[in-house]
Every structure is written in C-alpha cells, then in structure tokens.
C-alpha cells in the first residue's frame, strides 16, 4: 500500500475550524489599516535570490541558513521570500511608485524560513506587513506605532503587550558604535557563546540579541549605543517619544534592541508579550532609509513593520479573546424531509439569502432522516433550524426550532420567515 503523503514539516494546514479566527484577525487588521488610509499591495512569493542577499545582508542568519533557494529550469537562482519588505521595495521601484511620491502600503501572505519548527514559529508562516515611503520626519514613525497600538485596542490585547523602543542612529553613527562594540567584545572572546563568536565576525550588533546568560553578563559593561548617536538622530528620537507620550502610548527604551536585518536605521521597535513563553515578539519594525538606494533606486526614507499572524492568533487563543460570534459560522440550518422537501429547502434558503445577504444559511443536502438532519443542524452551531416536511410544504409553512435558546418550537408562514429571522438573529 502506498505511503500517505503528509505536509512538509513546519508547513501547516489551516483547517475549517481555524479559518474563522484567521478571518477575524485579518479583517480587524484590514479595518484598522483602512482607517489610516493605507492601500494593499500584493507581491509574488518567489523573487530573485539577489534581492534578499542585497537587502537582508549576505552574512545574516536568514541568508546563510534559512532561505529556501533553488535554481529554476533556466538556471536562475530563485528564493521563496523570507520577509516582505525587500519584495515591497522591489515592486514599488519597478512600477514607479516612489519617485516624488509618498506611499502608505500593506500586504499579507506567506513567508518561508528553514528554522526549527516550534509553537508559534513555522517554516511557512504568515505575516501582515506595513511599509511607508517618502516621509523622513518622525511623525510617520509615530503613526505606524500608534496604528499598532489601536489594533491592540480592537483585539483586546493592550494590557498584554509592551512596546520596546530604540534608535540605531544614522548609518555612520551605527558604524562608529559597531567598531567600539567589536573592540570591546574582541577582548572578551573567551566569555562569548559560539553564536556570538560567529556574529562578532559577521554582524556584531546581533550579539546584543544573544540569549546566552554568560554573554549577557559580558554585555553589561559594553559601550552604550546612545553614546554614539548623531544630533539629528537624537532629535528625531526625541520628537517621536514626545508624540507617543502625548498620545498616552507607554514604552520601554531598550538599547539592546537592534533588529536582525542590516537595513534598519534610526527608529526600531518591537511589541512583546510575556504570555507566550520564549516566542514573545508579536510585531516589530523600524526605519530603513537606505534600503531603496541599496536596491538601485534613489534615496528614499521609509519605515514599516510586520506582525506574525500565527503568533497573534496563538496569543488571542491563549488569552481567550476570540469573540464567540467569530466561531459561530452558521445562523440558520434548513432541513427538508419527504417528497419535494429537498427542492423546497433549497428554494427557501436561497430566498432568505436574497432578502438578507448578511445571514449565514446552510441547506441540508444528501438526504437522511429527520433525526440525522437535526444532529447535523446541532453540530453546525446554527441558532435556528428551519424544518420542511410534507405537511409544511402543503400548507406553505415552515417549522422554526430554536437550537440554542430553548424557546418553544413554532410554525410560521414561509412568506413571513425572512422578516422573523431578521428580527431574531443578531
């Protein structure tokens, strides 16, 4: 017997019982973004490998270890996108959306990284990303942070996430800090973990992210990034903080927050939670003014963020914040038993949908006894079942059964059922 084919490790199916929660989260995010005037952009999931090597950095963990890269039949090196920012920049530059223009864009879709799968972290994972272009002032940094804060309000997460904030300064200031950090750490190599030793040669700022307790103890005496900031970056960061303070958005300054990608400068931020164990970051981003030029365009200021869909859903489920109506997928279940009942049930259902498109109506198909149909009506989670037997069809009536509230069963004229449902289904 042939072996059953299963999904690739770390690439998961979203089953029908889970889909309503995904739709709820995605719909809520979409509504918030629309309220701020952001437009959707959709990019392909396959890009030229060079795009990510040039944007993310060839000596990052993502490029060195995690990308799904292969040669196609033409011998071109292609990569499943590991993140969305580079693809968005490529699309905007290719289609002329950046020259003398400002853009506020968002996207959603799967990303791919060959990491060790664990709860909340998968090899195919979904992100919702926001990118803005053409605005160099700190008000747009503030706007994207305020937008995420409003999203947490909508989702009920405001008390469960904390904003961590930092500034990396200009590229020149960061380079000066990098040199000072390398000098400090090079004198203490014997105290660093293996990953930090490798990063010291390739991407030393990532050493600040180390989870190794001994390395963290070494970093206590390391140079402070903010001592190397240029005046313009200090002013930018001060103005951003003033806006957030005025808006009542609380934050923590975390000078160890550097983000894992080479293209960030000035503002960086993360929204973190302590409700999910080690997987604590639910949204992260920052400013990347040099990336467009790095990819061949003209110098363009930019700021954005990305949030992990699976991790946000896990947080909502852990905190039991998914509204009950989200899981309620059917309002009315229509049953028919007897001669002509199948046809009558379909026609009644279709008439109800036509008069009330917002109602979720499911018609029983496939036959079966009254008892078996009622079992399926109950399993569907519907508020009401509409029953059509031979006597109801002959009299032009329908029997209404309350499946959740326990009210008495009643008989209505078919002509009146739509108005009755409009009044009784929330």
Please give the alpha-carbon distance between the first and last residues.
51 Å
Which strand-content bin applies to the residues?
15-25%
How are the strands ordered across the major sheet?
Answer: 1-5-6-11-10-9-7-8
Shape: elongated
**pLDDT average, as an integer?**
91
Supply the number of helical segments: 16
Sheet of most strands: 8 strands, mixed
Cα-atom radius of gyration: 28 Å
Which structural class do the helices and strands define? alpha+beta
Structure characterization notes:
With 426 residues, the chain is α+β, with helices and mostly antiparallel strands. It is 39% helix and 20% strand. It has 16 helices and 16 strands. Strands 1-5-6-11-10-9-7-8 form an 8-stranded mixed sheet. A 5-stranded mixed sheet has the order 13-12-14-15-16, sandwiched between helices. It has a 3-stranded antiparallel sheet with strand order 2-4-3. Helix 1 (19-35) runs antiparallel to helix 5 and helix 5 (138-155) runs parallel beside helix 9. The longest helix is centred in the middle third of the chain and has 18 residues, at 138-155. The mean pLDDT is 91.
List the defining traits of the structure above.
426 residues; alpha+beta; five-stranded mixed beta sheet; 16 helices
């Amino acid at each position: 017997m042939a072996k059953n084919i299963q999904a690739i490790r770390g690439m998961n199916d979203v089953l029908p019982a889970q889909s309503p929660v995904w739709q709820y989260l995605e719909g809520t995010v979409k509504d918030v973004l629309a309220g701020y005037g952001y437009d959707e952009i959709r990019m392909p999931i396959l890009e030229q490998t060079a795009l990510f090597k040039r944007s993310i950095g060839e000596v990052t963990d993502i490029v060195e270890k995690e990308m799904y890269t292969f040669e196609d039949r033409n011998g071109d090196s292609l990569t499943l996108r590991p993140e969305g920012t580079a693809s968005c920049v490529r699309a905007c530059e290719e289609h002329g959306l950046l020259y003398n223009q400002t853009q506020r864009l968002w996207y959603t879709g799967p990303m791919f990284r060959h990491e060790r799968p664990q709860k909340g972290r998968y090899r195919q994972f979904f992100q919702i990303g926001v990118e803005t272009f053409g605005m160099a002032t700190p008000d747009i940094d503030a706007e994207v942070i305020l937008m995420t804060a409003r999203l947490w309000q909508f989702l009920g997460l405001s008390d469960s996430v904390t904003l961590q904030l930092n500034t990396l300064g200009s590229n020149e200031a960061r380079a000066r800090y990098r040199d000072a950090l390398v000098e400090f750490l090079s004198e203490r190599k014997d105290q660093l973990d293996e990953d930090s030793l490798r990063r010291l040669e390739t991407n030393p700022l990532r050493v600040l992210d180390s989870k190794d307790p001994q390395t963290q103890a070494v970093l206590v005496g390391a140079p402070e990034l903010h001592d190397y900031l240029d005046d313009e970056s200090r002013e930018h960061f001060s103005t951003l903080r003033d806006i957030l303070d005025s808006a009542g958005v609380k934050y923590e300054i975390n000078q160890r927050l550097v983000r894992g990608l080479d293209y960030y400068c000035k503002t960086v931020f993360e929204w973190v939670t302590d409700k999910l164990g080690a997987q604590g970051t639910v949204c992260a981003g920052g400013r990347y003014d040099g990336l467009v030029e790095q990819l061949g365009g003209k110098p363009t200021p930019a700021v954005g963020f990305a949030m992990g869909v699976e991790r946000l859903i896990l947080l909502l489920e852990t905190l039991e914040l998914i509204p009950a109506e989200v899981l309620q997928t059917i309002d009315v279940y229509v049953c028919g038993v007897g001669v002509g009942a199948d046809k009558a049930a379909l026609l009644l259902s279709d008439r109800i949908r036509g008069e009330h498109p917002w109602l979720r109506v499911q018609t029983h198909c496939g036959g079966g006894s009254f008892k078996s149909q009622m079992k399926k009506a109950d399993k569907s989670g519907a508020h009401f079942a509409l029953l059509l037997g031979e006597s109801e069809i002959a009299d032009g009536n329908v029997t209404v059964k309350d499946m959740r509230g326990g009210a008495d069963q009643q008989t209505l004229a078919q002509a009146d059922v739509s108005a009755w449902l409009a009044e009784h289904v929330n």
